[in-house]
Automatic annotation (TrEMBL):
Keyword terms, alphabetized: Hydrolase
Beta-Casp domain residues: 270-395
Gene3D superfamilies hit by this protein: 3.40.50.10890, Ribonuclease Z/Hydroxyacylglutathione hydrolase-like
Protein origin, superkingdom: Bacteria
Classification via CDD domains: TTHA0252-CPSF-like_MBL-fold
Species, as recorded: Spirosoma utsteinense
Disordered: annotated span: 36-57
InterPro entries for the chain: Beta_Casp, MBL, Metallo-B-lactamas, RibonucZ/Hydroxyglut_hydro, RMMBL
The UniProt record lists the keyword Hydrolase: yes
Record-given protein name: Metallo-beta-lactamase family protein
Record's compositionally biased regions (Low complexity): 46-57
Record domain Metallo-beta-lactamase: where: 13-265
């Protein structure tokens, strides 16, 4: 049995792992590499990939040679390259949970729509160099046709049920928290009379997160592939999401008649915010400050959460039973059209605007930030990770002026940050996940999906806790298990 690390190796995004069992090949996740700035044939983080047979396509393998794809959850850094896989000849199935299927469909369709817009803009140009760029983009970008083909091949799998995928190979999806439908995937293999087991963590959630179940226990396995996003740190905010958000709203919208702008990812984080706001207004008697949610994809994702109430945590199910709603409350409005989005700037009362993207890079949130960034009565609340160079990162680093869509803006608004809505478990949560395994029987832990410094720190923490067999693989590196 051979395991190859083709993505999220010594970096956060691009999760993709290839498990080869004699003549059967399983791809676990097929995510977009959000950090790729060099051509795809270049090495990552200065590390030279292990030798592979050169391939002319998008992947370092022949897509038609893959027998099965397993998907841990819907986020694009885990699912975003699936349409490319089908375009290059993959003809098999994708196994994932029912909510992952629905959310992945929303995310991929949105991405295909943006891709089509990019191509249409280039089509309208008469410049030859732009035409040449369009030809290249059509090779690099997937469109709606590939998304439809991808989603037609999905087979939804229930949690906690062993599923036989081939002779001597079965898989089990175990709740991971993090996002609706997210899973740890455990694979059992019988090879040459020997039974082996391997667990892919996916993204590990945190306990008591709004709406989501806690990460479930994982059985003992021989090999553990563990994410390490927060491997070197703990969450900063110890308050509950309700208390943290209540404090911000009190100071920014009640004590003073101000505006609160919350950049938020449409899938997962927006739903957690809306549910928390609903609880504040329903259970704590907050004044009904107007709340605008400005994201068409957020609207679609919220409907999916409502379709899967039975898969949410007990607290959310009880709240839904008592109030007949999770996200709908007094003075709440979804903004569907671009016209309605821009009209919010004329709303004269205190309000809360939730809009994507969470890093303030692209999406309608750029307009809301531009309209409010020079207003000292406005607050921009960052609730998640912002990659270096994004507008969100610049706000957090105290830049006094920002250029948004070619126009300079003086930063007079208040900038705040909380991490209670981060869907990733911190170092303690990661340790809780690993400590389900026995140091005596666990043969190796492979750390993925994290910055290299985070991985090194977490490796040291694991060694101190009695887990010396820890590997930090390079991109393209393979191991015999």
């Amino acid at each position: 049995m051979k395991l190859s690390f083709l993505g999220a190796a010594r970096q956060v995004t691009g999760s993709m792992y290839l498990l080869e069992l004699d003549d059967y090949r399983i791809l676990i996740d097929c995510g977009s590499d959000m950090e790729r700035s060099a051509p795809r044939e270049a090495s990552t983080n200065g590390q030279t990939p292990a030798p592979t047979t050169p391939q002319p396509g998008f992947f370092p393998f022949e897509a038609s040679s893959i027998n099965l794809v397993l998907l841990t959850h819907a986020h694009m850094d885990h699912s975003g390259n699936l349409p490319h896989l089908f375009r290059e000849g993959y003809e098999g199935q994708i196994l994932c949970t029912e909510p992952t299927f629905a959310l992945t469909n929303v995310l991929l369709r949105d991405s295909a729509s943006l891709n089509q817009k990019r191509i249409n803009e280039l089509n309208a140009s008469k410049k030859q160099r732009v035409k040449d760029r369009q030809v290249q983009l059509q090779k690099d970008l997937f469109l709606d046709k590939q998304v439809r083909e991808t989603m037609e091949s999905v087979v939804p799998i229930a949690f906690n049920r062993k599923f036989r995928v081939a002779d001597g190979i079965d898989v089990t999806f175990i709740p991971a928290g993090h996002l609706l439908g997210a899973a740890h995937i455990v694979i059992h293999v019988e090879e040459n009379g020997e039974r082996k087991s391997i667990c892919f963590s996916g993204d590990i959630g945190r306990k008591n997160y709004p709406l989501l179940v806690d990460p479930a226990p994982v059985p003992k396995v021989d090999y553990l592939i563990c994410e390490s996003t927060y491997g070197n740190r703990l969450h900063e905010n110890l308050m509950s999401p309700e208390d943290a958000l209540a404090d911000i709203i009190q100071r920014t919208c009640i004590d003073i008649p101000g505006r609160l702008i919350i950049p938020s990812f449409s899938v997962g984080r927006t739903q957690a915010l809306l549910y928390t706001l609903n609880r504040l207004y329903t259970e704590r008697g907050f004044p009904p400050i107007k709340v605008f949610s400005d994201s068409p994809m957020g609207f679609e994702s919220t409907k999916i959460y409502l379709q899967h109430v039975k898969m949410l945590n007990g607290e959310a199910k009880e709240f839904y039973k008592e109030n007949e709603s999770l996200f709908d409350f007094e003075n709440f409005q979804f903004l569907e059209s671009a016209k309605a989005s821009k009209a919010v700037s004329n709303y004269g009362e205190p309000c809360i605007i939730i809009s994507s993207s969470g890093m303030v890079q692209g999406g309608r949130v750029e307009y809301h930030v531009a309209e409010n960034i020079s207003n000292p009565y406005s607050t921009i609340l960052i609730i998640g990770y912002c990659a270096e160079g994004t507008l969100g990162w610049r706000l957090l680093n105290g830049q006094s002026t920002l250029t948004i869509k070619g126009k300079d803006h003086t930063v007079l608004a208040n900038i705040e940050k909380i991490d209670v809505f981060s869907g990733h478990g911190d170092r303690n949560d990661l340790m809780n996940f690993v400590e389900m395994q026995s140091p005596e029987t666990l043969k190796n832990i492979f750390l993925v999906h994290g910055e290299y410094e985070s991985m090194e720190s977490f490796k040291a923490t694991l060694a101190e806790s009695g887990y010396p067999q820890v590997t930090i693989p390079k991109k393209g590196e393979s191991f015999e298990l």
